[in-house]
Amino acid sequence: MVDRFLEYVRFDTQSDDNSDTCPSTAKQLALGERLVIELTELGLRGVGEPTPSMDDNGYVLAELPGTTGGVVGLCAHIDTAPAFDGCEVKPQIVEAYQGGPIEVGHGVVIDPGDTPELLECVGDTLITTDGSTLLGADDKSGIATIMGALEILTREPGLSHPTVRVCFNPDEEIGRGADRFPLERFDCPVAFTIDGGFTGEISVETFSADKAVVTFKGVSVHPGAAKGKLVNALTYMGKLLDRLPMAESPECTEGREGFYHPVVASGDAASCSVQLIIRDFDTRVVEERGLRLKAMASALMAEETRLDVSVEITEQYRNMFDVLQGHPEILDRLERAVRAAGIEPQLRPVRGGTDGSRLTAMGMPTPNIFAGGINLHGPAEWVSTRVMGQVACTILNLVQVYGEERG
Ligand SMILES: [Zn+2]
To answer: Among this protein's residues, is 79 annotated catalytic?
Structure first.
């Protein structure tokens, strides 16, 4: 599993938000092709075809036939974040970590002071960067641990498990992993992403998210002759932004608290608009925040009747728990699988959206399982091979739990 991981991180698979293609970067296909070969070598089948394959959009699909009925999906993403260089990654191995700061190179230091997870990994073998790139444990740790679990399942025919379908997808980091997900072909009643997070972290909740665009239309008059005539749209945009509750801003919230967040504004004194994102774990609260924005717009128009303010709200994604609460057995089985790996599950609500929240909304409940990486998207990224072992163990337990309940 570790050998596979060290091989995968050497592939540059950085995605690109400015690209219109799928995958966004052709270089992701190189790792996809490598994975097709390795899945074929493991003896897996394709999904609806004899051998594993990659589709035209760069989604790699494979299937391990079950010893019992049922189907479970496992997903991880091929790309790495555009936020930091992912070219020529040179993984460094720290054997039997002794504690204390790790100087990985290029002036980058991983310090237990700001990375407390290190304190739990004394004695472990750690994999770091050389300080010049990110590592790509996000999400090549997810891919390697799935491959490791599959390898054990193919070698140990005595382990009972349902049919396991695997999808390695491109472009998660730019929010497009679910866009061309071959959902009909994959056809799993439940799937799990293995991505991010430290020991025991599992996520069945994400934000619910709306976007609001508030447009202001004033009355434009030459400022030299404006007294009593001009209505400045920018002035009223400022008033609206000032009336947003500061306590409900990203900078004042954490944990399960939601917020309004103005993202971008444009325009002039005659006409301007501001785009906000609205977030909360409670979907009703998101909708209430939208109504409060509309009420603020109405209040401004009452104060200045020549002003026009419109609020347009669009749904972005929904908390996957809205769906998952109707399937309590999924969380129950996932927690049993984590505990059977000797770890206490840590339920961590994701303050954002994931491919899993969109796949869940598209009809395939898809919680997330930790993949072990820390300090993701930067040069201080690292992963413990012991934690990677816990991930693979959790995956093996999970498919067996599904197998037992079917068998
Ligand atoms: Zn990730």
So the answer is: yes
